[in-house]
Amino acid sequence: MDKMIEQWIKQYNQLDESTQQKLEESFKALDLDEISRTYEKVYVNPEAIDMQRITEVPYTSKEELSNDAIKQLEDISYETVMDGQAAVLLMAGGQGTRLEYPRAKGTFSFDGVSLFELQSRQIKKYEMNGVLPVHWYIMTSDINHEETIEFFNEKEFFGLPKENVHFFKQEHFPPISKEKTLLLTAEQKIMMTPNGNGGIFSSLASSGMLDDLKSRGIKHVFMNNVDNVVVKVLDPVLLGVHIKDDNEVTSKSIVPKEGESVGRLSLVNGEKSVVEYTELPDGSEDKFKNGNIGIHVFSTDFLSKIAEADMPYHLALKKLEFLDEDLNASKDEVLKFEKFYFDAFKLAKKHHTLQVDRKGEFSPLKNKEGKDSIETAYTDLKNEGLI
Fold first, then answer.
1. Distance, CA of 69 to CA of 257 (rounded, Å)
2. Model confidence pLDDT, tens digit, residues 292-306
3. At a CB cut-off of 8 Å and minimum separation 6, what does 143 contact?
4. Phi/psi class of residue 294: alpha, beta or left (left: φ > 0; alpha: ψ in -120 to 50)?
5. What mean pLDDT, rounded, does the chain reach?
6. Which residues touch 47 (CB under 8 Å, ≥6 apart)?
7. Three state DSSP letters for the chain
């Protein structure tokens, strides 16, 4: 044990006995084989993807649907929701760092209305005779879990029944140095960071939430991010398409602006995926017309399947603060490994995309100023009459 931990934690012998004992407990809980495999596969010997073999994903434009068709989809959706067969899954593990707001991002407010409240209002509208048929599953992270729960309690769950709101934490994976050593935080603990949005499926299962929603007879799960301020939670047209076509995954997209750096829903070597803007073949950036906006509906059966799938890690080079070999504070580029939820798309036998107009559908809150900023989000909220 000592030899192994000394290989992975170079500062180990410089630490006091109490700290060593605590580190040993954390170290034992790590899957060193998985960490080593990930390091070799993702950093040392990464597989190249032939990005020349990208084609447009099959899609339907909402504009092409007749009023009668839309009404039919909305009716299907409403009946399903009121029957308790649809739930909402929210990704809310981030902080408002880029907004210079040092709290859980979902607590950020416009005119006293938080991002969480904007979405809760849309869920509450399905309440009838004091009964709400919708359950809301919210994925947090270690950095904001307690704060998020406290905020919901302070706001009395925005009028939602407390038993309909479920919180669970995103799983974590250790970042490591380029020399394959673990990093220590300023508190002399092994550094762990969220394992990417693709960890949502295994986290849903390991937390018991997947079993919970299955036990409630939920068959369809609407997933979205916390920071799209105009998101249509449980969008009846998207949900209706998903149910009517019996899809495993149904995605919502927008036509990207020229040069807009959103990922593109596409086929890579015939498999469904999302290709980052920077990875598209030169000269083809504006040929792919389905920008990914992080809104998808999954069948519960498909969630069960992908929760057990071996989702690949992707490499992100990040500058993080940690203790160097002399236990001095340092900030340097390290290896952070993340899973992406769209890697699950290739496992879906039935996946379709609904393309919509961005107005009233997509207004991300990413920056303090400039594009996708507090100002642009506020303007869109005002224009949509949401505040």
1. 28
2. 999 999 999 999 999
3. 93, 95
4. left
5. 94
6. 41
7. CHHHHHHHCCCHHHCCHHHHHHHHHHHHCCCHHHHHHHHHHHHHCCCCCCCCCEEECCEEEHHHCCHHHHHHHHHHHHHHHHCCCEEEEEECCCEEHHHCEEEEHHHCEECCEEHHHHHHHHHHCCCECCECCCCEEEEECCCCHHHHHHHHHHCHHHHCCHHHEEEEECCEECCECCCCCECECCCCCECCEECCHHHHHHHHHHCCHHHHHHHCCCCEEEEEECCECCCCCCCHHHHHHHHHCCCCEEEEEECCCCCCCCCEEEEECCEEEEECHHHCCCCCCCCCCCEEEEEEEEEHHHHHHHHCCCCCCEEEEEEEEEECCCCCEEEEEEEEEECCHHHHHHHCCCEEEEEECCCCCCCECCECCCCCEHHHHHHHHHHCCCC
Nearest 5 degrees, angle CA 220-CA 229-CA 98? 115
Q: How far apart are CA 68 and CA 129, in angstroms?
A: 29
This prediction's pTM? 0.92
What is the predicted pLDDT for the residue at 283?
73
Percent of the chain with pLDDT over 70: 98
Per the structure block, which two tokens stand in for 239? Answer: 């949900």
Is the pLDDT score of 51 beyond 70?
A: no
Q: Which two tokens stand for residue 268?
A: 């890579």
In sequence order, the β-bridge partners of residue 292 are: 253
Q: Which amino acid is at 224?
A: N
Reading the block at residue 344, the tokens are 């699950």
Angle between helical axes of 67-82 and 236-244 (0-180°, round to 10): 90
């935080």: which residue's tokens? 185
Quick count: other Cβ atoms within 10 Å of Cβ 138? 23
